[in-house]
Amino acid sequence: MPPPGGSPVQPLSDAGPLPPLGAFPLPDRLPEERLPPLRPGELLLLHTDGAEDARDAARRFFPLARTLETAVSSGAVRTPEELVDRVQAALLRHTGGRLADDVALLAIRRGVARVPSGRTAPESTGGAVAPPAAAG
């Protein structure tokens, strides 16, 4: 759910990208960043820099944030597949169908936990629901 008066699209990190693979040796330990957990129903889009760096014939960058806001705000996106399809179609329209760099898009959605009747959900995230004890 978007914040009141805010965008439904929020970046999870402001960390800068790492250099391209193979261009520089990677450090022994990569920086870690704790991100908030996805709430039920939220979508997360992971993408490579090729998505944001794609340019049109006038050399304007692809408006990824605006594309996501439009897709999500319109209510037309309900599944991760629909989100990837929308972003991919907009990206190809923007570039005239010619990408100068590779692009990877991965969308995931946190589902709503479903607990079978007669069982209770674990209180902590990541737990498992134990089967009922055997009679006898």
Question: What sequence of helices (H) and strands (E) makes up the elements?
Answer: EHHHE
Figure out the total of helices.
3
State the secondary-structure class.
alpha+beta
**Uncertain stretches:** 124-131
**In whole angstroms, how far apart are the ends?**
47 Å
Shape: globular
Global Rg: 20 Å
- What's the average pLDDT? 79
Tell me about the biggest sheet? 2 strands, antiparallel
Amount of beta strand: 5-15%
Largest beta sheet: what is the strand line-up?
1-2
How many DSSP E strands?
2
Q: Helical percent range?
A: 10-25%
Could you characterize the architecture of this molecule?
This protein has 136 residues and is of the alpha+beta class. It has three helices and two strands. Strands 1-2 form a two-stranded antiparallel sheet. The longest helix has 16 residues.
Defining traits:
136 residues, single chain, two-stranded antiparallel ribbon, globular, 2 strands, 3 helices
Topology:
Layout: E1 43-47, H1 49-53, H2 64-73, H3 80-95, E2 105-109
Antiparallel strand pairs: 1-2
Helix pairs in contact: 2-3
Summary of the model, kept short:
This protein is of the alpha+beta class and 136 residues long. The chain contains 3 helices and 2 strands; from the N terminus they run βαααβ. The chain is 23% helix and 7% strand.
